[in-house]
Every structure is written in structure tokens, then in C-alpha cells.
Design goal:
CATH class: Alpha Beta
Strand content: 15-25%
Low-confidence stretches: none
Strand order of the largest sheet: 1-2-3
CATH superfamily: PNP-oxidase-like
CATH topology: Split barrel-like
Number of helices: 3
Number of strands: 3
Number of domains: 1
């Protein structure tokens, strides 16, 4: 399940992942980011900052226990990231 989620995020939502890491992960200067894992309390990412890869762990707003909750939480994080960065969110989110 983790592999499916990370593959989907990295293949289909790379820009969204970058926005999430910049706004919520404490790496505002990141030039790229990918999701590397997740658990019930946080998503894990690798962000490129100044040519170096930095591990980033961003807690969920609440513990997640079901797969369906992951999508809702990532969409929430994406919308929050857009709001913080002053970016217009994609229509499908």
C-alpha cells in the first residue's frame, strides 16, 4: 500500500508534493521533492535543497488508520500549502 501511494504521488503529483514540502515541511527553497514513505502519523519525503537531498517528515493533522484517509489528508495538505504560498490550487483538488 505504501509503495502504491508513493508511486502515485511521485508519478502523478510531483508538483503538489513539492508545494507541500515547501509550505509545510520547512524547506521553502526546495527545487524538487518526492514522497518516500508514510505511516499512520506522517508522510515522509525527500526534498532537494541547494543540490542536496534532505529528509522531510510532515505529520498528518490526525492519526490515519485507513487507506481512504490518506487521499483526503494529502488533498488537505495540498490546499493548505497553496493557501500559504499564494498559489491557485488545481481544479481537481
Amino acid at each position: 500500500m505504501v509503495r502504491a501511494v508513493t508511486a502515485h504521488m511521485n508519478d502523478d503529483h510531483a508538483e503538489d508534493t513539492l508545494l507541500i514540502c515547501r509550505a509545510l515541511g520547512g524547506v521553502p527553497g526546495a527545487s524538487a521533492a518526492r514522497m518516500t514513505g508514510l505511516d499512520g502519523v506522517a508522510g515522509e519525503y525527500a526534498a532537494e535543497v541547494g543540490g542536496e537531498e534532505v529528509a522531510v517528515r510532515i505529520p498528518w493533522s490526525q492519526p490515519l488508520t485507513e487507506r481512504a484517509e490518506i487521499r483526503r489528508e494529502v488533498v488537505r495538505m495540498y490546499r493548505e500549502a497553496c493557501e500559504r504560498l499564494g498559489v491557485e490550487p488545481h481544479a481537481e483538488h
